[in-house]
Amino acid sequence: MSEYRINTKCVQGGYRPGNGEPRQVPIIQSTTFKYDTSEDMGKLFDLEASGYFYTRLQNPTNDFVANKIAELEGGTAAMLTSSGQAANFFALFNVCENGGHIVCSSSIYGGTFNLIAVTMPKMGIEVTFVSPDATEEELNAAFRPNTRAVFGETIANPALTVLDIELFAKVAHEHGVPFIIDNTFATPVHCRPIEWGADIVTHSTTKYMDGHGAGVGGCIVDAGKFDWMAHKDKFPGLCTPDDSYHGITYAEKFGKEGAFITKCTAQLMRDLGSIQSPQNAFYLNLGLESLHVRMKRHAENGQAVAEFLAKRPEVKTVTYSGLPSDKYYKVAQKYLPEGGCGVVSFELNGGREAAEKFMKGLKLIAIETHVADARSCCLNPATSTHRQLTDKQLEEAGIPAGLVRLSCGLEDSRDLIEDLEQAFANLK
Ligand SMILES: *Cc1c(COP(=O)(O)O)cnc(C)c1O
User: Fold this and answer.
1) Which among 181, 311, 322, 382 would be 20 to 30 A from 25, CA to CA?
2) For residue 8, is pLDDT > 90?
3) Which residues line the pocket of ligand 1, CB cutoff 6 A?
C-alpha cells in the first residue's frame, strides 16, 4: 500500500482479500483459535511462529485495522487497544518501568495528564512537565539519567497548542530516548509525525478515526526506526532476554521494525488485557474508510467558524491555529499545511454566566463532553469538567470561566454559524 496516496490508504489499506474472500473486513468474533497439534500451538506461545491463539493478545480483525493505521502513519507495526488511555499507558510503560522518568509536554489531554502525573508515579515512574513551547535549552534541562521517553500531543486537547515535533524528536534522540506523540486531533490525514522524527504514535481512535461517536478505542504505531540496541542499558525490557518467553530478546529477534509492538502485545496485552473488541475494530474501520473526506470538512468548518467568531464583539479571544492571529499559526503552517481539526475554543465576554446563557441558546450544537465526531457539540469547562475550580483557579489554569470548547462536526458550516448567531442574539 505504500505506493498509494493517503486517501487511497484510508479506503483500502490494511485488509487485502484474496480470491473469493469477503470484500469487507470480516469480524472474527472468536475468543480462541483451533490447532491440529499442541506442537503447532506451542510455536505460537514461544513466538516462533506468528498466528492467533487467544483474542486477549491478538485477533485478525484488529490486526487488519491496526495495519491500516500503520500504513496511514507510515509505521512498520501497530496494535489496537481498548481505549486511548490504554494506548498511551502501554506506549509509555513499554519503555519506562519502575525507576524511570518521562519528559512530557504540559499541554496534553486531561486523562493523560492524570495518568502521567498521578497514576504512573505510584508505579515508581517520575515525570517532568515542560511547556509545549519550550526552547531546546529548556527541553535539555528537563532530562535526567533515568529519562526513558519524551511525550507530547500534535494538537493538544483541549488547549489546541501545536507542538514543534521536529524539535521534540531531535532533543529526545540526542538523549537516546524515543519521542512518543499522541496524534489524535490531527490524524494521519493532516499530520504524520513519523515524517518529522517521531518514534511512536498513539491515538484515541474514539475521536476522529471512529468519527461517529460509536466506539471507544486506541491505537499504537511504531515507526520502526528507534535503535533500541544502541541504548541497551536504558531499555532492558527490549534488549535483554524475557524469561516469560523462553529468553527471547525482542530487539534482537524482531529488529527495529517489530520489537516494540511485539513486546507490547506479548507482555503488556497478555498481562494487562486491554484489547479492543473485534466488533469495535470493525466500526473503527468504517470510520477510517472516510477519514480523509471527513477531516477535510471538519477543518473547513473549524476554519469558517473560527473566522466568524473572531469578528464577533461578544467574543474576547478565539483559539484556532488556522487563524493568522493565533499563537500557533506559523507552527501549524509547517506541520498542518492542509488544515488542523474541527475543534475551536473561544472566550466570551461576561464569563461563566455569558457562557451558560449562550450555550442554552444553541439549537443545533449540543452540549456534550465528547469532541471530534460528526455532530457538532460544545462544552464550558467552568461549569462541567472543571466545575470544582474557582474563577481565580480557572484563570491560573489557562481555562477562563467564559471559555467554550466547540467541536465542529460535519454539518453545513452556514447552519453552524446561523446557530451561533442566534445564540449571540439571545445574550442581549
Ligand atoms: C480522548 C483522548 C484520549 C483518551 O482516549 P479515550 O479513548 O477516551 O481513552 C487521549 N488523548 C487525546 C488527545 C484525547 O483526545
Assistant:
1) 181
2) yes
3) 83-85, 109, 111-112, 153, 157, 182, 184-185, 204, 206-207, 216, 218
